[in-house]
DNA sequence: TTGTAAGCGTTATCAG
DNA sequence: CTGATAACGCTTACAA
C-alpha cells in the first residue's frame, strides 16, 4: 500500500499532468490501482464493499478516467472511426447520428470523417483512424484504394463496410442492393404504363451507389421493352440540380423520371410546376431516400426508403461482434418502396 | 532494411501489439527513436540526410504512428471533441463537415457527439471527451449544466462555444445574435405592411436559439405596433411540423408567418398551397437557414442565412489559437437577410 | 476477490 | 542536430 508520494516527486512539474489519477482514487479507496481499473471495467467482478469505496473515492475526487492511457495499455482504444462520403447528405447524417447514439451507449466514441466521394481522401482518413488503435473502422461502400485495403489488412483492425456490398468485403458488411432499387422503380413505372422514362442523376461517376440505382433503372426499363435514358450532372445532388435535370430531360420529353434521390426529385417537381406540367398526369416522378419532406410535397413523392436506422443498428452490432465469430459477415437490410401520389 | 528481430523479446506475445513501432523505424534508419519522433513532429528540425533516411524507413516498413501513445506522452491528444444538438439538422451537419475538413488539415481528429438538445446528454459527452485529453472541446450554445462547466473548468481544456453567445462564455465563442435575426424578419414584415404576424416554432423549449429568434420576432413586431403571436409544436422542426403549424396559425389567420427554420417554412408553403393560399399575396412566409432548397421553392423563400462556414472557420481558428493569447475571445459572424419572393 | 509488476509506444527534457 | 532516459496513466498476466 506504499503509494508514491507525489508532492516530493522531483519531476512532478515537468509537464501538465492529470490532476486526479487512478492511483489517487486507489489510495483514497484503500485499494490497489488494478482494483480500481477492474471496478471501472467490470464492476460485478469486485466485491460490493470495495466497489462502494471506489465509487465514493471517484465521486469525491472527481476522477475523470484517461482513455488515452487506457487505450495504450490495452492496445485497442474505445474509438470507432466512421467514414462517410458526406455529412450533408441526409442518409449519412442519419446513419452517423444513429450509430453514434448506439455506440456511445457502449462507451465507444465516434471519430467522423468525410471523403467527398474521394478514395484518396478515404485513404487519408483510414490512415489517421488506424493511428488510434480503433475498436473498429466503419467505411461507406466497397470501393477503396489498394493502399486502403492493405493498411486495413495489415493493421488487423475490425472493419465494417456499409450501405453497399462488394464482391470482396474487407470485414463485415451491411447494406442492400442499389441496383434492385433502380429495378424496383422501373417495375413500378412499367406497371403504370408510363412508357418512356429517364433517370435524373447527380455525381454518378463518384457516387457508386447512385450509379447502381441508375443502372438498375435502365436495365429494368429495357427488360420491359421500355425506352429509358440517363441524364446527369456532375455536381452534388440538390434541388437546384433537380431543376436543371428536368430542363435537360424535357429537351426530349418523357413520361416518367426516376431521380438520384429525393432532393433531386424535389427540384424536378418544382421545375415541373414552373413549366406547368402536372404530376403525375403529365410527368411521373420518383425519388430515393424517403427524406423527411417526401410525404409533404404536392403531390406526395413516390420514393424508396433505405433503412438508415437499420443499417446503423446492424453496423453497431457488427462493430460489437468484432471481426471473428460465426455471425454472418454480410447483412442485407432491404429497402421499402413507398408508393405515393407522384408516380 | 534489417528487419527488427522481435522474436527474442520475452514479452512479445503478451498482448496484441503494434507490428511496426517508432523504434523499428529508428533502428532501420540508424537513428534514435527521439530523432524519428522529432522528424515526425517538426521535419525541419532534422538534418536533410537523416530526414530522408527516416522517411525511407517509414515508407519501407509501412510504419503507422500510434497517436494513443503520443497523446499519453504529450498529455494532450490530437482529438477535438465537437458536440452539436443534432446532426440531422443541416446547420450543424454543415458546420461539422466544414470543421472536420479544416481540422483534419491540421491533423486534428473530430470526435462527434449529439445531444438531442439535452443538457444531461451534453454533460455525458463532455465527460467522455475530457477522457481523451482533447486538444479542444467545441460545444453548441452557451447553456450547460453546472457539472459540465465545472468539469471543463477543472480540466483546463480549451473550450469553444459556437452558434450563440452567452453572458459568461467558458472559453472562446463564435456566433451571432438570434434575437437580431427575429427582429430582422419583423422589420421586413413591417416594411411590407403585412400587419399581423405569427411565429411558427418547433421545439422552442429545448432549442434556445430558435426561442431567441421567436422572441426577437415578437419583440420586433410589438415595437412596431404590430400584433404577433407564437404558435409552436414540441417535436423537431420538420416539413410536417410546418404543415401542422400553418393549420394552427390559420385558426386565427394572419398575413405573415416567420418560421423556426426553412424546413418548417417549406411545410408551411406546401400547406398554404393545399389551402389555396397564394404566397405572398395571401400569406407571406419567411424562414431561417437558407437551406439548399430555399431558392427553388415556388415562390423562392425569403430567409436569413446563418454563416455556417464562417462559423466553422472561426471555430477552427479558435481551436488552433487555444485558450490563451490576446485574440478576441468572442467572434460575431453576423448573418445575411435573403429577400426572395415569399415575403 | 485483490494486489504486484511489467509493460504499452510515444514525447519531453536535458546533455552532448 | 542527435541521443539517452524518464515519465505519461492505465491494463493485464500472474501471484496471493
UniProtKB/TrEMBL annotation, chains A, B:
Q: What superkingdom does the record give? A: Bacteria
Please list the residue ranges that the record marks as compositionally biased, kind Basic and acidic residues: 1-11
Keyword terms: DNA-binding, Transcription, Transcription regulation
Reply yes or no: does the keyword Transcription regulation apply.
yes
List, in alphabetical order, the Gene Ontology terms for molecular function in this entry.
Answer: DNA-binding transcription factor activity; transcription cis-regulatory region binding
The annotated region (Disordered) lies at 1-23
Which is one Pfam family of this protein?
Answer: Peripla_BP_3
The keyword GTP-binding appears for this protein: no
- The chain positions of domain HTH lacI-type read 20-74
Q: What is this protein called?
A: LacI family transcriptional regulator
The source organism is Palleronia aestuarii
Amino acid at each position: 500500500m506504499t503509494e508514491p508520494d507525489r508532492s516530493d516527486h522531483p519531476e512532478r512539474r515537468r509537464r501538465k499532468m492529470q490532476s486526479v489519477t487512478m492511483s489517487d482514487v486507489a489510495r483514497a479507496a484503500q485499494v490497489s490501482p488494478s482494483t480500481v481499473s477492474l471496478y471501472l471495467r467490470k464492476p460485478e467482478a469486485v466485491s460490493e464493499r470495495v466497489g462502494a469505496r471506489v465509487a465514493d473515492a471517484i465521486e469525491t475526487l472527481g476522477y475523470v478516467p484517461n482513455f488515452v492511457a487506457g487505450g495504450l495499455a490495452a492496445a485497442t482504444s474505445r474509438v470507432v472511426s466512421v467514414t462517410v462520403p458526406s455529412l450533408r447528405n441526409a442518409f449519412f447524417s442519419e446513419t452517423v447520428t444513429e450509430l453514434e447514439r448506439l455506440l456511445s451507449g457502449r462507451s465507444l466514441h465516434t471519430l467522423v470523417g468525410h471523403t467527398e466521394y474521394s478514395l484518396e481522401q478515404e485513404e487519408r482518413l483510414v490512415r489517421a483512424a488506424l493511428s488510434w488503435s480503433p475498436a473498429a473502422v466503419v467505411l461507406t461502400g466497397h470501393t477503396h484504394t489498394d493502399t486502403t485495403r492493405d493498411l486495413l489488412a495489415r493493421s488487423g483492425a475490425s472493419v465494417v463496410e456499409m450501405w453497399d456490398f462488394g464482391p470482396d468485403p474487407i470485414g463485415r458488411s451491411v447494406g442492400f442492393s442499389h441496383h434492385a432499387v433502380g429495378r424496383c422503380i422501373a417495375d413500378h413505372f412499367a406497371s403504370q404504363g408510363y412508357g418512356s422514362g429517364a433517370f435524373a442523376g447527380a455525381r454518378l461517376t463518384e457516387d457508386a451507389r447512385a450509379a447502381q440505382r441508375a443502372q438498375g433503372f435502365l436495365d429494368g426499363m429495357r427488360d420491359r421493352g421500355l425506352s429509358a435514358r440517363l441524364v446527369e450532372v456532375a455536381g452534388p445532388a440538390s434541388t437546384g440540380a433537380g431543376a436543371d435535370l428536368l430542363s435537360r430531360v424535357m429537351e426530349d420529353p418523357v413520361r416518367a423520371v426516376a431521380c438520384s434521390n429525393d432532393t433531386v426529385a424535389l427540384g424536378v417537381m418544382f421545375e415541373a410546376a414552373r413549366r406547368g406540367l402536372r404530376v403525375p398526369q403529365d410527368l411521373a416522378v420518383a425519388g430515393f431516400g424517403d427524406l423527411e419532406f417526401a410525404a409533404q410535397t404536392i403531390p406526395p413523392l413516390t420514393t424508396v426508403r433505405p433503412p438508415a436506422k437499420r443499417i446503423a443498428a446492424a453496423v453497431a452490432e457488427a462493430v460489437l461482434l468484432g471481426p471473428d465469430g460465426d455471425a454472418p459477415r454480410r447483412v442485407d437490410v432491404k429497402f421499402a418502396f413507398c408508393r405515393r401520389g407522384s408516380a
